[in-house]
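Weekly modeling sync, notes
Attendees: AB, CL, MP (scribe)

Item 1: holo prediction request
CL wants a bound-state model with flavin-adenine dinucleotide before deciding which constructs to order. AB pointed out that an apo prediction alone won't tell us much about the pocket. Agreed to run with the ligand included and paste results into these notes for async review.

Input as submitted:
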Amino acid sequence: MSVEYDYVIVGAGSAGCVLANRLSADPGTRVALIEAGGSDRGLEVRMPAGFSRLFKTERDWDFTTVRQPELSGRELYWPRGRMLGGSSSMNAQMWVRGHRADYDGWNIPGWSYEDVLPYFRRTERRAGSNRGEVYGTKGPIHISELRSPNPATALFLRACEELGIARLDELNGPSNEGCSPTPVTQRRGRRWSSADAYLAPAAKRPNLTVLTSSRVRRVLVEDGRATGVEYGDDGGGAAVVRARGEVILSAGTIGSPHLLMLSGVGPADELLAAGVEPVHELPGVGANLQDHLASGIFLHCLKPITLAGAESAGNLLRFLAGGRGMLTSNVGEAVAFIRTSEEEPAPDIELIFAPGSFVGHGLTPPPGHGLTIASILLRPESRGRISLDGRDIVIDPGYLTAEADVRRMVTGLRKAGELFATEALRPLAGPPMDPYWGPRTDEELVRWIRERSETLYHPVGTCRMGEDPGSVVDPALRVRGIAGLRVADASVMPVITRGHTHAPTVMIAERAADLIAAESLSR
Ligand SMILES: Cc1cc2nc3c(=O)[nH]c(=O)nc-3n(C[C@H](O)[C@H](O)[C@H](O)COP(=O)(O)OP(=O)(O)OC[C@H]3O[C@@H](n4cnc5c(N)ncnc54)[C@H](O)[C@@H]3O)c2cc1C
């Protein structure tokens, strides 16, 4: 049996929820949103500090990369949200648009900083400081200040100023060079995901159908046109939905290229080797994978004020009764964006401060009160790829395959060490906390980076947008060579932003909705 809609959207994540709302705003348009995961209800999703409690549960795709030769041969754990809201229901809630140079640097008509700025503003509903009115205030995504920041966070910001890192008026202006408390996607101290912002208000529309626990297996392509999708439910059944207008893939940086490949769109030789009949040769599918790599310094905290004490009965009560207290922390409470050399046009390293020890994705209970400053490689030169092994996905981020990336990481970690040595932070900064052992020389720092770096959870780029024929989607996000098929999610970013990836993904989806509406009017 098959049912027909105007638009079929695959994936209810950061991007898919935006599209479901915007496209179904016209009551004459029938929209289906199909999500592999289930509900986003529950305390672990709502409670900001609890995001690592979602790791390795049924709400996590729980991916693993292949062995990374430049990271001591380790296989890395990659969580991704598998529920309504997708990764926006399990992320650290940091709202960081990036730098104007990111979008101008994409160099794609329609996607310059000035072009995309209205879409950021359209999505934002800022509560709190808004100097220069950089934020929008009427959109669906609540962007707040942390309600109960840790006292150590103010000291980190003072430490940055001691080292000459200027305090920004607002983090999300055109330049993010400087330091700032982290703006968070929270409302009254609770997580505010794409599903909260976009899906919940549209859920009762009779022209929007949301299917959960339904994993799309492939896009149906007939005579060069996407006509629908085939999906399976958790019980092993299969069904088809048809799209009169378009199929839109918003299944994320791993899911979207995976689905294209399973549908016969990708590098033909690789598809054949995996037993998939090629429908359209598009070698760029799965290539251009980029991620932000993170390497941290972990120290004992000399005062018992950190998030190690977050899960007390008192804090739970404070959170449940008033949306306040340590459980409203997003862990990464403040940031600094810096350049490792004067030649850099914009920041290439981010330093994230956590008033707690965030070791092993927060899955390992800390051995006491700790502090973390993580150094993030914002502009990796390394590129990886996603490919098929039979029907399964293979993730190779190619971390640190470019030598320049290692040098930048070393400079970032040195700066993190300098911050801990400032007058502001010294009273809190104790000895190294296990597994950190206090590397000092360049060789030791490189060893630490290779042995312990982890993802900051920001993969992008595997369905690259561009004007060139080698790109996967064109500047209107249409898949090259297949009519009626678009990709709108983090995978279309040609180059990763010098910020975090949720905000740009929402922006991409907002713009995609306009592009789709404009095209439907002209049909
Ligand atoms: C632990 C963690 C922390 C993060 N912290 C931050 C942060 O603080 N700030 C920030 O900006 N970014 C953060 N990110 C990254 C950010 O959340 C993502 O970049 C963003 O959510 C990506 O949006 P998306 O729409 O591309 O994909 P997703 O939001 O991942 O959505 C994809 C959706 O598609 C579904 N799907 C996939 N395949 C199929 C299929 N075959 N059939 C049906 N459905 C399918 C998935 O289940 C999912 O719901 C974090 C991510 C993680 C995992």
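Recorded for review: The mean pLDDT is 97.
Action items: CL to compare against the apo run; MP to circulate these notes.
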